[in-house]
């Protein structure tokens, strides 16, 4: 029994090949090219609460989430913590430094919300991958850049938008990425606390609780430990207008 279980256990190479064969970044590669491309990637595992990298790191490289959940955190000048993005399987995050960065550029810290696995590509390996498979490298760079720009848009919206609008936007985005439909409801099963919602919307925990409690009484959402239900999506969408 033990030998059979061991024979079925996937190796890191198996995991890399299986995962990359199913995502758009590598869709143009044949099996031999895919196997070659994965040689530039390292499979890394993180436990819940582990940090993957910090915003001060000069060369974190490129990460692709294989399984689990990661949050990207930004510390503001006044000491507040903001979750600028949740990373889901298949998402690209991190960045590549081409020489020393110019200007006052700041990024984010990455922390595992759940036990997670990632594919990691260092700066040097990314350059080698780009030389051999430029189309793949371009897709990764575009994804990473778009996601990095999204973090700045979120920071801008936190500075200007109303709290209700920001919370509604976050719930709708979570519903889009991680929600499952059941009858007329959308169920978001993520280990998010009120503190997380507050940090994703740049508000206090007390304010996040007050807004979501009011929506619960109005029948717009339902919240229980471990999940959030969106009962009336249209009402949340009205807050974005």
UniProtKB/TrEMBL annotation:
PROSITE patterns membership: CNMP_BINDING_3, HTH_CRP_2
Keywords, sorted A to Z: DNA-binding, Transcription, Transcription regulation
GO molecular function: DNA binding; DNA-binding transcription factor activity
Every HTH crp-type domain range: 161-234
Classification via InterPro entries: cNMP-bd_dom, cNMP-bd_dom_sf, Env_Response_Regulators, HTH_CRP, RmlC-like_jellyroll, WH-like_DNA-bd_sf, WH_DNA-bd_sf
GO cellular component: cytosol
Pfam family, one: HTH_Crp_2
Taxonomy, superkingdom: Bacteria
Gene3D superfamilies: Jelly Rolls, Winged helix-like DNA-binding domain superfamily/Winged helix DNA-binding domain
Keyword Amino-acid biosynthesis applies: no
Residues spanning the signal sequence: none
Domain Cyclic nucleotide-binding: 25-129
Protein name: Crp/Fnr family transcriptional regulator
Native organism: Aquifex aeolicus
